[in-house]
Amino acid sequence: MKQIYILTTLFLICITNLYAQTTDVVTGLNFPMGLALNGNDLYIAEYGGNKISKIDITATTPVATDVVTVINGPYELALNGSDLYFTQYNINKISKIDITATTPVATDIIIGLNSPYGLLFNGNDLYFTETNGAKISKLDISDATPMATTIYNGVINPLSLALNGNDLYFIDVNGNKISRIDLTATPLMVTEVITGLNNPLGLLFNGNDLYIAEYGGNKISKIDITNATPTATDVVTGLNGPSGLLLNGNDLYISEASANKISKLDFSTLSIEENIVTNKKQLSPNPSSNYIQISNLIKTKNYTIYNVVGTEIINGTISESEKIDIRFLSNGLYFLKFDNVNTFKFIKN
Q1: Considering the domain 1-19+270-349 in this protein, what is its CATH number?
Q2: Cβ(33)–Cβ(244) under 8 Å?
Q3: CATH for 21-269?
Q4: Where are the domains of the chain?
Q5: Cα distances (Å, whole numbers) of residue 334 to 6, 287, 346, 348
Q6: Are residues 134 and 150 in contact, defined by beta-carbon separation less than 8 angstroms?
Q7: Quick count: other Cβ atoms within 10 Å of Cβ 247?
Q8: pTM for the model
Q9: What share of the chain has pLDDT > 70, as a percent?
Q10: Which of 129, 227, 233, 301 lies deepest, with the highest CB count within 10 Å?
Q11: The pLDDT value given to residue 317
Q12: Confidence class for position 14, pLDDT limits 50, 70, 90
């Protein structure tokens, strides 16, 4: 039993290093928050530096260059064509710049808000939160003089927004929860999605998975919104004040505000850590000295066996009636992974 405990601990350490590790993209920023991507240019709202900067994500060693500096308290960014919209939290307005301009100059879109934070486009409608105004509003950017229309009020300290179909998800940081509004419903109804988070700041959809930057928990978690009662699972921990999120292919970019940097996580490396199987398929016997078998396989599957440090040991195919010979393996903990990302732990003794 002592040997199994040591091996399990070793696996957890190794799997964290191999499958849930972020890499630094750029450091030396000043409290980075919102992110936006245009081609290879990643735009960064540096709240502490009162500026928007950018990096070329294809560069070997990206270096941040200033885009616009005469602003105050930028939190979140939203691109619409060549126009980059941003909230100026400290001076209660939303502004924009033309990123194609040689020297971009901020133009005010709407003023007189109450601590604007989150931004999100849905067609010509720009949705935004007013944190100290306790409401979510929108404006039509195609109007000559855009006017704010309140969508929902009464939410305490709303922050980031995310859209999935007709459902507008938003963070209620005071309640450490996420709720949603069906924008097609009359009247609009608010539904709690998940509670018990730790100072959530950022939201991002990837299919049915809603990723959450938990600033107070120093981690990124996620929920499956198709579940009747979603439960948050950790994606990556050990961060330092995560706030903004942006997905580009398999790369999840994370602004770590408290660490003054942007890091990234390769989604393609999460398969083993995130998908340990707990469904009706079962591996038996476990532990085993000679053979293992998987029940409830519908068709032939490709598999790979890894050791605790992530090294591939053997691969092959298996059907429900077949067994996998493990007699040649040294005693210890192993992982049987299928090509549909299902993974089982087993012990060779």
Answers
A1: 2.60.40.3080
A2: yes
A3: 2.120.10.30
A4: 1-19+270-349, 21-269
A5: 13, 10, 5, 8
A6: no
A7: 17
A8: 0.75
A9: 88
A10: 129
A11: 85
A12: very low
